[in-house]
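no rush on this but wanted to send it before i forget. theres a chain ive been looking at and ive put its sequence and its fold in C-alpha cell form underneath. i want to understand how the C-alpha cells follow from the sequence so walk me through it. thanks a lot i owe you, the record is right below:
>
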Amino acid sequence: MSTLPSTGAAVKAADRAHVFHSWSAQGLIDPLAVAGAEGSHFWDHDGNRYLDFSSQLVNTNIGHQHPKVVAAIQEQAGRLCTVAPGFAVDVRAEAARLIAERTPGDLDKIFFTNGGAEAVENAVRMARLHTGRPKVLSAYRSYHGATAAAINLTGDPRRWPSDTASAGVVHFWGPFLYRSHFHAANQEQECERALAHLEEVVAFEGPGTVAAIILETVVGTAGILVPPAGYLAGVREICDRYGIVFILDEVMAGFGRTGAWFAADHWRVTPDLLTFAKGVNSGYVPLGGVAISAEIAATFDKRPYPGGLTYSGHPLACASAVATINAMAEEGIVEHAAHLGEHILGPGLRELAERHPSVGEVRGLGVFWALELVRDRTTREPLVPYNAAGEANAPMAAFAAACRKGGLWPFVNMNRTHVVPPCTLTEDEARTGLAILDEALKVADAHTTG
C-alpha cells in the first residue's frame, strides 16, 4: 500500500517540510502540487488543468508521458537498470549513434553527462586541455548552468552571488538589435558591429590566452535571441583564425525546439563542441552530453581525459533518449515544430503585438518564442526594471497570474514571457494558448504609458 501523500495539501505540506527548492527564498514560495501530466497539459490535485507553455523548463519537447518513451524506460528497467560508464552497453552506444547522426559536421563522439550544466563544464574543460589556454569568452545575455564554471560563464544576474571573478571568464555583448549595444539601425549593422566588438575583445584579451568562445546558438532564458544572418559564421571564422575552440550550447535550443534537430542547422555552422540535454529525452530521465569534433576527440586518443561521472550514459536515460529520438523521427515532430512556428505561433503572436501596446517585440522560431513586454513602445522601456523583484516586478507577476487563471502555465523571465510549449503541441492547443495570452496581455497593457 502506498504511503505517498494523496492530496494537494498533504503533498505541499510534505514538500514544505523537507524539500529545499532551487533559485528560491524558501519561506516565500508556494509551489503548485502537481498530480499528473499528459501531452501538452499538467494538472493539480484539485483537477485544475494547465496548458504547459513552459515545457516545464523548456525540456519536455516530446510532451508529457509519451507512451513510447515511458515503455522504453520500463523495458530497460526490467533488463538492466544501471551499469558503470566504463562498460560498453547496447543502449548507450545506440543513443550516441542516434545523436551523432544528427549533429552537424564531424561531431561524432558523444560524452554523456547528467544534464546541461555538466555538459558545459566538460566542454570547457576539453577546450582548455585541447588548446592549453585558460580563458573562455561568453555573452552577457546568456545562461549556461548553475555549476562552478557554467555559472561563471552565465551572463544573467544568477551569476552574481557565485561569481568568483577568477574563473577565467570574459563576457562580451552578443547581437540583439531591439536593445542594440552597438547603435545599429538594422540586422546587417548589428551583425557586423557585434563581430567587430567580439574580435576586439579577443585582441585585447590576447588571442593566445583564449581557449574557447561559447554561445547559445539561439539564446534561451536570456531572451530567445535569434542571431542575425552571418553572425555564427563570423564567430566561426574568428575562432578559426586564432585557434579558438567554438562551443555551441544547444541545451535548450536542440532536439526540435527551433524546428530543426539542432539550431545550428538553420545557419549551417559546425562548432568544435556542442552541448545538449533537455530535449534529447524530454527530461524523462536526467541526461546531457557533449558532441565532440574529430580533432578534439583525437587529443584524448593517447592522453586520458580527466573527467567522468558515475551516471554517465545511464541505461535508463539512454533508453529514453533512443525512444525519444526515434519517436521524433517517426512522428515528424521536428517538422511539426517548424510548421507551428511558421504558420501558427509566429503569425498569432505578431497579431497579439498589433493589439497590445505592452508588446514591444515578437521574436523566435519553431516552438521557441518571446514577447518583450514594455511600458512604452517608443522608448522601449521594459515593463519591469532589469532583475526586478517584489513590488517592482508586480506588473509581470500580475500578467503571469492572469495566464494561470486562464489555464495556461507561462514561462516568465524579467520583462518577457517566453512561448515554449512542447514540439508536439496541436494547432488547436496553440490557438487556445494564444487566446489565453490575448486576455492576460490586457493586464500588462494596463501598465503601459502609451
About this structure: Residues 70 and 320 are 8 Å apart (CA to CA).
